[in-house]
Structure formats: structure tokens, C-alpha cells
Amino acid sequence: MKIIVAVKRVVDYNVKVRVKADESGVDVANVKMSMNPFDEIAVEEAVRLKESGLASEVIAVSIGVAACQDTLRTALAMGADRAVLVQTGVEIQPLAVAKLLKALCEKEEPSIVLVGKQAIDDDANQVGQMLAALMNWPQAAFASRVLVEGNVARVAREIDGGIETVEIRLPAVITADLRLNQPRYATLPNIMKAKKKPLEIVTPEVLGVDVAPRLKVLRVTEPPKRVTGVKVLDVADLVSKLKESGVVA
Ligand code: AMP
Predict the structure, then answer these.
(1) CA-to-CA distance for 40 and 75, rounded, in angstroms?
(2) For the chain, N or C: smaller number of CB within 10 Å?
(3) Strand arrangement of the beta sheet that strand 172-176 belongs to
(4) Do residues 70 and 9 make contact, with C-beta atoms less than 8 angstroms apart?
(5) What is the whole-number distance in angstroms between the Cα of residue 243 and the centre of ligand 1?
(6) Predicted structure pTM score
(7) In this predicted structure, what is the pLDDT of residue 210?
């Protein structure tokens, strides 16, 4: 049983992002980039399925510029067996990612595709769902527990009211939520070993996928600055301050 796991290179979650002066997007020049945190969880889950003998091979896939190789090397150091970079300089939107993953699924025939529930840069939360639709495969989004038995996966999903457990037939798409596991750190020996693992580079053209953006970003702006708060003495003071500021009549 093969597993494909998608890993996106994003601005590190510790970085405070800045909006470009012309409001065309976020400034990523000289900013630390890392693997999308939900994708680390997806890689960990794939590697655990392999370690438990349920999966035979874990293939990490990233789509983007040449530097995504670093993200793939991290996935390899965590335990993936090989990696595929779909290299492109074009801005890649979720539908294009889903189409590229579909092309790779047709080639590799995995039993499970694991992706993060969302990328922390675009916050789209779309790729897993779109891929399942394009492949006409079952999907379990926001997984907090995955149990594989034969050609079925029992997945506990985080939903608004609590946890929902679904049973899906494989092949299927699973998207990883925060509580699925605690991803391991790549150790130095494993980082060294990862350098020798196979990393194939393909292009969207080779996969026959049109990745032209379908959505246009009109403007990216900073959230409004928070105004300083004031301390109130008691409820009466609170009500009078609210009246003064016109919040209540
Ligand atoms: P999104 O729908 O954009 O929020 O992304 C959901 C998940 O799709 C991410 O957590 C990744 O697992 C995967 N994904 C999105 N974009 C890429 C990319 N450029 N390369 C690899 N995986 C991606």
C-alpha cells in the first residue's frame, strides 16, 4: 500500500508576516520558510502507517519553486521513502494543486493521499476536498485519528459538535487536523540519510496539467489595529462608558 503525502513550503508559523507596500500580497523576501505545520502531521501519520507495517512506501510531493526541495528533504528525514517536486514558478492555487496531485495519483496509484487540513499561508482548506472530487474517491477531512484495516480506513474527524467517526473505502483522501499526532523532529543522522533518498523533479507540463491561476487577488491588507482598552470600575461605569461611546443607546 502506497501513501502520497503533500507538503507545502510556507512562511514559518513564527514569522510575523508583513503586507507589501502596494498591497499585492505578503512580503516573503528574506523570510524563514518551513513545512506547513499540518503537513508535518500528515507526514508523521504516513510514516507511522509505514512503521506499523500497513504501508509499503511513503511518497512526499511538493509543488512550487526549486527551494521546495528543502521541504521535501525534511519529509524524507522524517521517514518518507522518496519525493517528487512538481517544479513551477507560477503562483499555484488549490485547484491546480489538486489537479497535479490527481495526475500523480493516476501514475503512482496510492491507497491513501494524506494532505494537511489547510495551508497556513492561503488558509484555503480546499486541496484535499478538491482532489477527492476530481478522483471520485471518498474523503475524510480534519482527521484526529486514523485506523486502517484492509481496504477500509476508520477516521475520527473533528467537527463543530465534537468527533465524528467515518468509515471510508480506500483509495481515499485524508486531511490531517492538529490533534492527529505529534510530529517527530528529524534527527541529524536521518537528515544525512535523507540526502541520499530519491527526489524526482517533474513539471506541470510533463504531467499535462494547466496550472494557470483562476482566481485574482485584488488586495491584501493588514488587519485593523486594535485600539487601547480602558478599565471600568463597575457595571454602572461600563454602561455609562458604552453610552458615551454610542455603542448602546
Ligand atoms: P489548502 O487547501 O491550500 O489550504 O491546502 C491544503 C493542503 O494541501 C496543504 O496542507 C498541503 O498538504 C496541500 N498543498 C497545498 N498546496 C500545496 C503545494 N503547493 N505543494 C504541496 N502540497 C500542497
Answers:
(1) 8
(2) C
(3) 162-169, 152-159, 139-149, 172-176, 112-116, 2-6, 57-64, 82-87, 199-202
(4) yes
(5) 47
(6) 0.92
(7) 95
CATH superfamily of the domain spanning 2-245: HUPs (3.40.50.620)
Q: What cell was used for 210?
A: 494547466
- Cα(230) to ligand 1 centroid in Å equals 42
Residues in contact with ligand 1 by the CB-under-6-Å rule are: 6-8, 36, 38-39, 42, 62-64, 92, 94, 97, 115-116, 118-119, 122, 124-127
Number of residues in the chain:
249
Hey, where are the domains in the chain? 2-245
Provide the pLDDT for residue 229.
87
- CA 115–ligand 1 middle distance (angstroms): 7
User: How far apart, in whole angstroms, are the C-alpha atoms of residue 68 and residue 176?
Assistant: 20
| Local mean pLDDT, 10-residue blocks, the chain (249 residues) | 98 94 92 97 98 97 98 98 97 97 98 98 96 98 97 96 96 98 96 97 97 93 88 94 88
CA of 35 to the centre of ligand 1 (A): 10
Number of helices (H) and strands (E), helices first, in the chain?
Answer: 7, 11
- 127, 180, 207, best to mutate for ligand 1 pocket (most atoms within 8 Å of CB): 127
Structure confidence by residue, pLDDT tens digits, 189-217: 999 999 999 999 999 999 999 999 999 99
Q: Which residue among 9, 36, 86 has the greatest number of ligand 1 atoms within 8 angstroms of its CB, and so is best to mutate?
A: 36
